[in-house]
Design a protein that fits this description.
The protein has one helix at 209-233, and strands at residues 28-34, 37-47, 50-54, 66-73, 76-88, 91-95, 113-131, 134-151, 155-160, 171-177, 181-194, 197-204. The chain is mostly beta strands. A six-stranded antiparallel barrel has the order 1-2-3-6-5-4. Strands 7-8-9-12-11-10 form a six-stranded antiparallel β-barrel. Residues 134-220 form the PilZ domain.
Amino acid sequence: MTNQAGSSGTGWYGMVNTSFPLKALLHSRTVVEKDGYVSTGVLTHIEGDMLEVEMTEFKNFELGNPVHLTVYSPVGIHRVQSTIIGKAEGSLAVLFPPRAFSGLEEKRESTRVEMLINGSFRNVLRRQIQTSEGSEILEVEEWIEFTVRNASLAGLGFEVISGPQLHPADKVEAIVKTGFDLHCTLEIVHSKSGGDHTFYGARFEELGEQERRALRAFLLREQIAVYYRMKQIK
């Protein structure tokens, strides 16, 4: 049967699959090709913007190499242009391009990456004072430090040791140290007190395209580092 436009590929026995879950690609034989060199491995991990292919000949690939993947899965043969973004003993991390596999059932959500980085948000203290000419409002600006525990393209979770109590729907100007100063506006979604600190979940408001690209690159680097650290521990 010939593929129709928008199908995910031709499955085994000539069946055409129009949609499939992401996990259907796991453990599929995967051919990785660069500059005429071809090696075969197994697709073992898919998360966020990263695919992992386990293979014995991983040393023949370098970070930044453009590659062509051919994934032989139960839901069809899929061909993807990508780039090597990580490397460890016995495996390659490969960029998972947006819309790489047509026919995926689920929407790819922003991956939450665990981390420990610093940031701060702007707090304005307002006090009414009496003067000889009457009353006036005095404003004092301060920056409250926080520690980011996890982040994604959608938002972040952070802890504050001391500072003003924030509530859902509150919005604050913030600077997050992601290898560069990410200036952003955070909207508080939820909070939870825990002894000497308060944990907040917040979402980004209207990140610019440049900031979004830089944040995506930072998150991808962190995701790869965390993943391979966990592999070493296991």
